[in-house]
Amino acid sequence: MLKIPDNQVAGHKADGGKLGPLVDDSGRFYKPLQGDERGKNEAAFYTSFSSNAKIPDHITRFFPKFYDTQIIEASDGSGMQPHLVLQDLTFDRTNPSVMDIKIGSRTWAPQAAEEYVQKCLKKDRETSSLPLGFRLCGLQIYGDEETKFWKPESRAWVQSLSADEVRLLLKKFVSSNTSDSKPDCAFASTVYGGSTGILSQLLELKAWFEDQTMYHFYACSILFMFEKELALKGKSPRSEIKIVDFAHVVEGKGIIDHNFLGGLCSLIKFVSEILTTPEDCANDGSLEDSVQRNHVYSGNSTV
């Protein structure tokens, strides 16, 4: 039985009769293949990457498992359509907090049509992509059984954040008081820090990008995920990162992917600063007012 994903925070969604991804009860995620070169490109990347013996195991764990392509009934009622069959990244998680971060100051591939380049360039300039090298695309933060998830009210708002507001949301993501005026960063050390935390994983990924020249990853996102309820019980919150969305990946041709690497280094800096200056969490009141005005609480992520 296929259904709409509960924990999707960005990208095209299948709610309201629209075309979007679906999930099943066995942990598989069905992503519609776009009908143009983007769909062919993403399928080709997954096929290449999953069979590439040069990719070390400690790096493949940061990518969704690829099973195959399959023709299934599309979510918009348009009939049987080809879909990528991937790992459902939140399948075995309970009330996961999830953040989608698009990496790179440039989000179009070299061979893109001029019209598409201009569209991307406009968005990159209007968001934090150009100044920071990354931008937030969506998130949900689990609060408690009563409030469920804290979410931005609109995708446009979360993508138009200033550097200080991005920093604030990265703090709020690991705070226990999602409904309060100031984030307390209560889970920063357990989610971002430690040998298995998000920062350690980002640094591991960075080390690979400093050497790999096989692929250039344009317009890809890194997902942050963890389970707050486990953290509240003093258990490992299962902090994890995954890279997703590969419609614009191109061959590296022996050249370092400086666009992705630069954005990744910038993101690492933001996360590192939260860990090294936790006292700053108490000094974001004026910014928090803006964040608090632009959110909703929701029981699922299809809002």
Summarize the SSE layout with pairings.
Layout: E1 22-23, E2 28-32, H1 37-50, H2 57-60, E3 66-73, E4 80-87, E5 96-103, H3 114-126, H4 129-132, E6 134-142, E7 149-152, H5 155-159, H6 163-172, H7 188-191, H8 198-209, E8 215-217, E9 221-227, H9 228-232, E10 240-244, E11 249-251, H10 258-276, H11 285-293, E12 295-298
Antiparallel strand pairs: 1-2, 2-4, 3-4, 5-6, 5-9, 6-7, 7-12, 8-11, 9-10
| End-to-end separation | 22 Å
Encode the helix/strand succession as letters.
EEHHEEEHHEEHHHHEEHEEHHE
Profile the largest sheet. 6 strands, antiparallel
Rounded to an integer in angstroms, the radius of gyration calculated over CA atoms is 19 Å
- Count of β-strands: 12
Residue share in β-strands: 15-25%
Class by alpha and beta content: alpha+beta
Portion of residues within helices? 25-40%
- Mean of all residue-level pLDDT scores: 91
Unreliable residue stretches: none
Please state the overall shape, judged from the principal axes of the Cα atoms.
Answer: globular
Widest sheet: strand ordering:
10-9-5-6-7-12
Quick overview of this protein structure:
The chain is globular, with a radius of gyration of 19 Å.
Note down, in words, how this protein is organized.
The protein is an alpha+beta fold and 303 residues long. Helix content is 33%, strand content 22%. The chain contains 11 helices and 12 strands. The strands form 3 sheets. Strands 10-9-5-6-7-12 form a 6-stranded antiparallel β-sheet. Strand 3 and strand 4 form a beta hairpin. The longest helix has 19 residues.
